Amino acid sequence: MDIKKAETYIENALKEWNIPGGAVSLIVNGEILSSRGYGVRELGKPDTVNNSTRFAIGSCSKAFTAAILGALVDEGKLSWDDKIVKFLPDFKLYDPWVTEHVTVRDMLCHRTGTMRSIRIMNRDRVFDADDYIQRMEFLRPIGDFRTRFGYNNPHYLVAGKVAEVVSGMKWQELCQKYLFAPLGMNSSVATYQELLASSATNCASPHANLDGGFVPAELRAADPVKPIPWTDYGENSAGSIISNLQDMTKWVQMLLQNGMYDGKQVLSPEVITEMTSPQMIIKPNESEMDVITSVGLKSNIMSYGLGWYVTDYRGTKMVFHPGQLHGFVAAIALLPELKIGGVILLNVYQTILHPMLGYFLFDSILGFDRDYSGEMKTMLSQWRAGAEIEIQGMLASRPNPKQAALPLEGLAGTYVSDLFGEIFITLEGEKLFHRYGETDLFTADLDLWEGLTFVVEYRNKINPPEFLTFISDEHGIVTSLEVKDVDLFRRK
């Protein structure tokens, strides 16, 4: 493998995708072939990324939570198939029977059959996992229990809480005890607050593609990016770990060595096997992972283990997981039978480049030469063009009413959803203003579309606009509002 050629490809790809900076490592047979930074920590500033630069790893944190539970299983403190209510007696899901029978394994492989509710993760100044867990009984079912895959962050919040109950320790302490300390991951922290307390300076800044209008966020990946503020995800066993390339490479080396690192058995081979074995088959259209196979490299099977996706890659097993949150994406991937692994950390919110770089690196080792970045960029531009045609058609046929169907002052008020909490609608001059949560992510102006339907124009531009409709009774009294594809909020 020509390492210099591969590194040049990565460097050029980041420039082509308007990504300010990243860090990438490649491990083969325990040897680190490449581990380096690319670009800058923050757009417009000179500080460069190196393999010590810290990034948020998002949902790559889930494998750490699964590993902690595995260590506790080895200690006899619980089993994978223990019921959640054994440890959290007040826990509830939408159905009493499901509540009674859902297990640790069910949570870790995302098979409760419940809807996603991502915006709760970004609602508060400091995310509150306990509050989210209490709201889980209001997650609507999207399928029958254990019959379909449904990726959902609160599953791992529950798993982390179970780990705390059986150990008597906080999740961030468990990360340190079972993984960070044994692996020498000295730059890794479990929460943003720990990062602030450490006074760390070598940190990547989060970025996002802004000003995309109605274009869905996932199709803005080729747009220019701008720095955005960090989001505090609290103590979040679904995705709050912050790490760097050096530390994450140690994590991958341990996994490739069947739990062994530097002469120490950090995780048992049994735990590694359980985590990286298929636990739940993922059928077509059940996961956003469909997009990563769209460049033509088809898998024969897609499944989820415990904290990992498990699939096949050119005839061999591949274990991987992406991470994404406001400002960052990450990807960890292993070909365990070939002792190959890689880590990719990028400081931008929306991109599909990270899995493409993983494909490119693995192909380079296996003797294939394919421009995954270029192919995905072309495909993304086609998807974007199709979306813009639809958006232009929608805007061309937009009604142009002079006023809403009811006086604006009658629409102002507080609206509440059992799942999502409160939306506040206020009248500021002659315009309605929308606020959800404590952060600025969901502050918006309401722009009349027609009747009682408004466009929610988020001021931060990270979130694309969406539609909100007020619902009135036969007397013209507004009783609720509906955010399209989110939920119905009743008026207080």
Explain what the structure shows.
The protein has two domains: 3-384, Beta-lactamase, CATH 3.40.710.10; 408-491, Lipocalin. The protein is 28% helix and 24% strand. It contains twelve helices and 22 strands. It has helices at residues 3-16, 62-74, 96-101, 104-108, 129-135, 153-167, 171-183, 192-197, 245-256, 269-275, 353-366, 372-396; strands at 21-28, 31-39, 54-56, 207-209, 225-227, 242-244, 260-261, 264-265, 280-281, 302-304, 309-313, 316-325, 328-335, 340-346, 413-417, 421-428, 431-436, 444-450, 453-458, 466-472, 478-483, 487-491. An eight-stranded antiparallel beta sheet has the order 2-1-14-13-12-11-10-9, sandwiched between helices. An eight-stranded antiparallel barrel has the order 15-16-17-18-19-20-21-22. A two-stranded antiparallel sheet has the order 3-6. A hairpin with a 2-residue loop joins strand 16 and strand 17. Helix 1 runs antiparallel to helix 11 and helix 2 (62-74) packs across helix 10. 44% of the residues are buried. The mean pLDDT is 95.
Strands of the widest sheet, in order across it, are 2-1-14-13-12-11-10-9
What oligomeric arrangement do these chains adopt?
Answer: single chain
Q: Give the uncertain stretches in residue-range form.
A: none
Strand content: 15-25%
Mean pLDDT: 95
- DSSP helical segment count: 12
Looking at this structure, what is the CATH superfamily of the largest domain? DD-peptidase/beta-lactamase superfamily
Ordered list of secondary-structure elements with their pairings:
Elements: H1 3-16, E1 21-28, E2 31-39, E3 54-56, H2 62-74, H3 96-101, H4 104-108, H5 129-135, H6 153-167, H7 171-183, H8 192-197, E4 207-209, E5 225-227, E6 242-244, H9 245-256, E7 260-261, E8 264-265, H10 269-275, E9 280-281, E10 302-304, E11 309-313, E12 316-325, E13 328-335, E14 340-346, H11 353-366, H12 372-396, E15 413-417, E16 421-428, E17 431-436, E18 444-450, E19 453-458, E20 466-472, E21 478-483, E22 487-491
Antiparallel strand pairs: 1-2, 1-14, 3-6, 4-5, 7-8, 9-10, 10-11, 11-12, 12-13, 13-14, 15-16, 15-22, 16-17, 17-18, 18-19, 19-20, 20-21, 21-22
Helix pairs in contact: 1-11, 2-6, 2-7, 2-10, 11-12
